[in-house]
């Protein structure tokens, strides 16, 4: 197994590099204690048996005027609008090249009362009014300068629309294993209104310990993310026009257990950086074996890609390619809240719970809470979180939880997520409360 130490490799951008090498703004200081929070289930909607309330995987989510929830679905290429009580209010979009249609759907958001939706394959952004009527659809230019220099580098893709009409975007590369290199660059970019490059915010190195790529017996590539990758995570907050970077190296028993949170402007300037202490969690051998079994099962299901390899051969392939540090990376996901807060999801804890820690807009600890069923948070603030949970049968449900600024024992009876609200089964299509 790969056991390369996982230090950050985001050091290629000169203007940011100098700032990153300066001492942290809080060197040697113990992190303040987090407030203990609880979450109370407020709303669930989705129903696999009702075509009106059944939907495919949720790609993105946004809260619009009047508290209406908008969900983007990359499989159906549709946008659903829901009322605050979980009633389906409207559906628009669809597959195609006409006005309001998509060839792909990656992200949605709001500029005032206007909903925007990005089509990364058709290279256009579409704007809708509050009724779901198309206001305009704008084609985006393709900047291929990086591709001319290196055929392994992809073209820039807009990811999020910013308040001034420009875009945050990314320019990715082939996996290093496929390119035959130790690492490949991933560029975080500021793009103009036509999606042409204005500035490079950050250059991140994608390493073999970040991505999984192995060759099958037939010479085809089996790819995915390294389950225990400890490379930096990023998240953008379009309304603030900033990029949050979380350095999360797995603990190596050398020095304090700390992760670093950095907020960058769209010009690459450092707004702040904070070192945040955490408690290391050892990576157990049984956990690694479960992951290997899951990889092999997935590869066996796609035998067209895996060839005629036996389970034993696939297991050995996975075992050799897997990056397994001695400790779990401290953060598995980062989300930037609507109020600028920073939400960090930890590893799976006891009783199947997942801990979330919340920092304020300056990176100072605010609160922490635990969810029994993993929630993929899309929208958050200090009042509530909106996200998607997947049932054991693979059905996705949209769920909203209210943040209770009190420990679990002090929360109202029945409000804590550790009660009936956390248990799968028996969902109606809309559940205002459990």
Briefly say what this structure is.
With 434 residues, the chain is mostly beta strands.
Q: Would you kindly provide a written description of the structure presented here, covering whatever features stand out?
A:
This protein has 434 residues and is mostly beta strands. The chain has one domain (14-431): 6 Propeller (Neuraminidase), CATH 2.120.10.30. The chain contains 6 helices and 28 strands. It has helices spanning 14-21, 145-149, 176-179, 285-301, 303-306, 311-321; strands at residues 35-36, 38-45, 58-63, 69-73, 78-82, 88-93, 107-111, 114-119, 124-128, 134-139, 157-161, 167-171, 183-191, 197-207, 211-215, 221-225, 233-237, 242-247, 258-265, 270-277, 333-336, 342-348, 354-359, 365-371, 376-380, 384-390, 396-404, 430-431. β8 (114-119) and β9 (124-128) form a beta hairpin. 38% of the residues are buried. Residues 3-24, 26-30 and 412-434 have low confidence and may be disordered.
Offer a few descriptive terms.
mainly beta; five-stranded antiparallel beta sheet; 434 residues; 6 helices; disordered N terminus; Neuraminidase; globular
């Amino acid at each position: 197994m790969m056991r390369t130490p996982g230090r950050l490799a985001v050091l290629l951008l000169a203007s940011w590099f100098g700032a990153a090498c300066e001492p942290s703004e809080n060197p040697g200081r113990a992190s303040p204690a987090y407030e203990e929070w609880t979450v109370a289930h407020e709303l669930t909607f989705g129903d696999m048996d009702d075509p009106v309330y059944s939907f495919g995987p949720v790609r993105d989510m946004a809260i619009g005027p009047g508290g209406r929830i908008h969900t983007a679905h990359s499989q159906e290429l549709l946008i659903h609008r829901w009322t605050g009580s979980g009633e389906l209010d409207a559906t628009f979009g669809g597959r195609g090249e006409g006005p309001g249609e998509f060839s792909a759907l990656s992200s949605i958001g709001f500029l005032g009362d206007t909903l925007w939706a990005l089509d990364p394959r058709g290279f256009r952004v579409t704007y809708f009014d509050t009724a779901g009527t198309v206001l305009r659809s704008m084609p985006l230019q393709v900047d291929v300068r990086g591709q001319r220099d290196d055929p392994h580098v992809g073209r820039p893709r807009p990811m999020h629309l910013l308040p001034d009409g420009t875009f945050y975007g990314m320019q990715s590369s082939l996996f290093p294993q496929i390119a035959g290199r130790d690492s490949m660059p991933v560029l975080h970019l500021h793009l103009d209104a036509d999606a042409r490059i204005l500035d490079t915010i950050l250059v991140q190195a994608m390493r073999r310990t970040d991505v999984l790529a192995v060759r099958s017996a037939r010479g085809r590539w089996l790819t995915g993310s390294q389950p225990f990758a400890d490379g930096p995570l990023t998240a953008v907050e379009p309304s603030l026009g900033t990029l949050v970077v979380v350095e999360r190296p797995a603990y190596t028993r050398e020095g304090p257990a700390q992760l670093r949170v950095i907020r960058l402007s769209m010009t690459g300037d450092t707004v702040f950086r904070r070192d945040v202490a955490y408690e290391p969690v050892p990576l157990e051998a049984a956990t690694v074996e479960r992951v290997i079994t899951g990889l092999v099962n997935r590869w066996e299901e796609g035998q067209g890609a895996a060839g005629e390899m036996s389970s034993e051969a696939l297991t050995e392939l996975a075992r050799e390619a897997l990056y397994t540090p001695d400790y779990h990376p401290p953060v598995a996901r980062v989300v930037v809240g609507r109020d600028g807060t920073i939400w960090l999801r930890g590893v799976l804890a006891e009783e199947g719970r997942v801990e979330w820690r919340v920092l304020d807009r300056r990176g100072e600890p605010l609160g922490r809470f635990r969810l029994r069923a993993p929630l993929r948070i899309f929208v958050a603030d200090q009042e509530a979180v909106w996200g998607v949970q997947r049932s054991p049968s693979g059905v996705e449900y949209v769920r909203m939880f209210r943040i209770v600024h009190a420990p679990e024992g002090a929360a109202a009876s029945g409000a804590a997520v550790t009660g009936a609200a956390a248990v799968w089964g028996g969902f109606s299509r809309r559940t205002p409360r459990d």
